[in-house]
Amino acid sequence: SYITNVTAKNCGTGYDVLTGGSLGGAGIGIGTGAMESENLVISNCMADGNGHYGIFLEHQKLFESTLNYEAQGVTISNCISKNNRYYGIGVRGGKNVIIDSCQSYGNQKHGIYCYTLETHDLTISNCQIFGNGEHGIVIYDMLMNGLKIHNNTFLNNNQDIHFRSLKAGTGNIMINSNYFETSKVGIHFESPNSPDYIVIQDNMFTGCQELGVSAQGGNTCIISSLFITIIYCGFKIAMNCEDYFGKYLAFGITFGLAFQTMLNLMVVVGLIPVTGVTLPFLSYGGSSLLISLIS
């Protein structure tokens, strides 16, 4: 299925949920609930001054139980979505979603808004997201496995990338090679559930007024320092033991924790495939946590 070279201007403006109207109101709105195995491409389209969304991709499972399919591949490319009431591009449905080479700017709230769904492999790349009233990209209330945000340019948003209320089990998030300029915060995490794996690398932050990366509930440098301290102390104890049993016991326990930590971190940075090895003391899993504490 293809939607190409479409211009939607001032569509859906009569609906406003804040004043008791419908949830609808998009320039280009696509429902995926009946798409069992189709691929969908939206390309070279313009959405200007529309209602809630400029371009909106949505499944219907929330409203109709029989419409429970997901399009198997969705690509939104070379589109411009600007000056819409709330969001430039909205995603609440589909699998293997790619948003590539799009511009989203001048929207009253967010440039790209992805929320309330389970999805695999969401990629946002080569986009220009600027001048939106609140955030550039928002990832909200989602369970996902495979999110890539790379090679994008963010200018003059309040927060450029905002994660909020992620569901437990979310993992494999990579944010790399993006350019951030003159926002308050570049990347912000506000979620009680931390992603299983996340990599933030090779990004450029210029003129961020408050923070480049911020997170509520944890600090990577502090956690890394604690692991280094535990491993160092363990090996030092092994070296200072007077009997061989104590040396071997301390060395074995410390080496086990160090090797497990190294494997987990190598998966996080993409050096090796996902192994399922947990990060000691921190990752989900009762048996792993119990063994680590006993050690």
Brief rundown of the structure:
The protein has 295 residues and is α/β, with parallel strands linked by helices.
Shape: elongated
- The unreliable regions are none
Q: Could you tell me the mean pLDDT?
A: 80
Secondary-structure-derived class: alpha/beta
Quantity of strands, as a count: 24
Helical residue percent? 10-25%
Total count of helical runs of at least 4 residues = 3
Strand content: 35-45%
Describe the structure.
The protein is α/β, with parallel strands linked by helices and 295 residues long. The longest helix is centred in the C-terminal third of the chain and has 25 residues. The chain is elongated and about 80 Å long. The chain starts with a strand and ends with a helix.
Topology record:
Blueprint: E1 2-4, E2 7-9, E3 26-31, E4 39-43, E5 46-48, E6 53-58, E7 73-77, E8 80-82, E9 87-92, E10 97-100, E11 103-105, E12 110-115, E13 118-125, E14 128-130, E15 135-140, E16 143-150, E17 153-155, E18 159-164, E19 171-176, E20 179-181, E21 185-190, E22 198-201, E23 204-206, E24 211-215, H1 220-240, H2 244-268, H3 286-294
What brief labels describe this structure?
about 300 residues; 24 strands; eight-stranded parallel sheet; single chain; alpha/beta; 3 helices
